[in-house]
Amino acid sequence: MSPAHLPRPSLALKITLKIVLMSNSLASTSCYFSVNCWQTNWIPKAVAISSSGNPTVHHHFEKKGPVPVNESEIGELVNVSRLKVDFQKGLDQLKSDYMKHLSLRSASGSIENLQVDFEGETYTLQEIAQIGRKGPQLIVVNLSSFPTVMKDVLKALNDSGMGLNPQQDGTTIFIPVPKVTKEYRESLAKNAKTLFQKFKDHSRDVQNQYIREVKKKEKEVSSDLAHSVQQQIHSMAELYVSEGEKVMIAKQNELLGKD
């Protein structure tokens, strides 16, 4: 039987393959192993039937493309609309962070909208501080009316990705406005990658959350459906991560002055 006429195994079917390894002396060594076609998503390049009737693989494996997403099928086990919204939230947040925090113009407007987490609540900096300028190259943040939040404000400034170097003096924070140098541009581009990694982690968390939902229902549905939906959720995560990577590259090119 020729390879073209071999029956194609189903995605969840476990098959046993015999690999024949030929040494320089033409002596053959045989080994057996089990491959779950769905889990690995790999297919053999060529298979032939030996005289003993066992399938023999003579070549390496070739990876298949991404698993197509069938929203109707996914919807049998999870809420697709909610899944897409959760993925999109991460992408929207990445775009928002880039717009607010990664600009060559470190204006006080970006500082004013900086989010500060304090005792389980989130505030913008302008809600808890007085923000002004002392000359064109120095931003002044006055926290005299809310001094207990000082530590959290400094953390938010340092973690903002804007390349700032805040200096505390009592209840006041002085923030020098960085000059737009090559080093500053490269620092912002590096921060763009850091924010992208944060988005990527969010996407993985969403993926794992919904895969756990599917696994809870494995006993109620066929194993083929459960496995297929898990793969498709993974594919959706990869699509959003890929889109986020494009946003990151565009932002880095903008910051570095590339076309």
Tally of distinct domains:
3
User: How would you characterize the largest beta sheet?
Assistant: 4 strands, mixed
Shape: elongated
Query: Structural class, please?
Result: alpha+beta
CATH class of the largest domain: Mainly Alpha
Please give the CATH architecture of the largest domain. Answer: Orthogonal Bundle
Give the spatial strand order of the biggest sheet. Answer: 2-1-5-4
CATH topology descriptor of the largest domain: Topoisomerase I, Chain A, domain 4
- Output the radius of gyration: 27 Å
Proportion in helices: 40-55%
| Average pLDDT taken over every residue | 78
How many individual helices?
8
Oligomer type: single chain
**What is the tally of beta strands?**
12
Helix-strand topology string:
EEHEEEEHHHEEHEEHEEHH
Percentage of residues in DSSP E strands: 15-25%
Structure report:
This protein is an alpha+beta fold and 259 residues long. It folds into three domains: 3-63, no CATH class; 71-94 and 181-256, Topoisomerase I, Chain A, domain 4, CATH 1.10.132.20; 105-176, 2-Layer Sandwich (Gyrase A, domain 2), CATH 3.30.1360. It is 45% helix and 21% strand. It has eight helices and twelve strands. It has helices spanning 37-40, 71-74, 80-101, 108-112, 125-128, 150-158, 182-216, 223-256, and strands at residues 14-22, 28-36, 42-44, 47-49, 55-57, 61-63, 115-118, 121-124, 130-133, 138-142, 167-169, 172-176. A four-stranded mixed sheet has the order 2-1-5-4. It has a four-stranded antiparallel sheet with strand order 9-10-12-11. A two-stranded antiparallel ribbon has the order 3-6. Strand 7 (115-118) and strand 8 form a beta hairpin. The longest helix has 35 residues, at 182-216. It is elongated, with a radius of gyration of 27 Å. The model is unreliable at 1-51 and 56-63 (pLDDT under 50).
